[in-house]
TrEMBL record:
Phylogenetic placement of the source organism: Bacteria, Bacillati, Actinomycetota, Actinomycetes, Pseudonocardiales
Keyword presence, Signal: yes
Name of the featured protein: DUF1023 domain-containing protein
Residues spanning the signal sequence: 1-29
Positions of the DUF1023 domain: 118-301
Keywords: Signal
Coiled-coil boundaries: none
Gene3D superfamilies found in the cross-reference section: alpha/beta hydrolase
Keyword Zinc-finger: no
Amino acid sequence: MGGITKPVRMLAAMGAAMALMLVAPPQEAAVAHEPAGIAAWRADSVHGRPLPDPATTSPSQVATFFAGLSPDERAGLVDRHPRVVGNLDGAPLDLRYAANLGVATSAMSVGRQVLAFDPRGDGEVVEVLGDLATARRVAVIVPGVDNTLARFDRGLGGVRDRAPAVQARHLYREMIDGERGSRAGGQPVAVIAWLGYDTPEGFSPSMVRSERALDGANRFVRFMRGIEVVNPEARVTVIGHSYGSVVAGYAASRLPSDVTDIVAIGSPGMGVANRDGLHTSARVWAARADGDWMRWVPGVQVLGVGFGMKPDDPSFGARSFSTVGADGHDRYFAEGTEALRNLARVGLGEPELVSGELV
């Protein structure tokens, strides 16, 4: 009886949210997100040269700007504008880590590599495990509904398997595991937990509409272009969990060519009718674990509500893989599961080792 109660509650809540949105006006898309301290940044300069404006300057242009500065000039910008430098895609990694070190200490322990941090609202944070500057294989986790800065380490409801930081640590350990590492030729790896957008609140109209995902996709594309600039040799896997897979779906066609794989797990849909609708040359993977309540969510898109066919549907056209051991919606990154092992294999560029694959 208990195994049915939660799915039924989830389905009822999703249905209520969808019904509400069919009669409610669409939400406006989120406005452009600017870092705290941007006004002072725009008023500053280096030798009379204006500083790169995040709203109008590409990550590659940002990188070019910083390449022309002396070490003292770079350090001065970190000291004067930590909240901007720490969130500036294309800026050198060491500067972003240093800028966020002081800003994020109240929320995160010292010694962690924080690539972006913003405590405003529900909060946003991006953490890196491994040496992102030298990694040849990089996996980026895009989390879904109800993830906030406060839940980044502990997870919604204290469920650690839902915490993006915990998911990233488990995947990183799996990717550097001796057996899989040797098959990958000992190549250096990195994992990124990207909570860089305002996720929808659970059981709210926003969780069945696309506005948050579209805004998140725009931010994610810029972030990924910044990663390409600082490490053009890396090959990248994007893993979208739950609503995070909607973000990945809307971003797919604009992601850099270094993204070789896109994975959707526990997905409500990717905003398209099928794999071809993603318009990407990357391999597309999808899986749903036994007991995941997402199976109750209809794979439809009506009047702006819903996200279309779920990618784990064979008709979608994605590659599938085994999720044995990852029962429910929150355990895809749980240690000891075939789901985690397969995510690591995809992340390492070893599709031939993925178990349970159907193409």
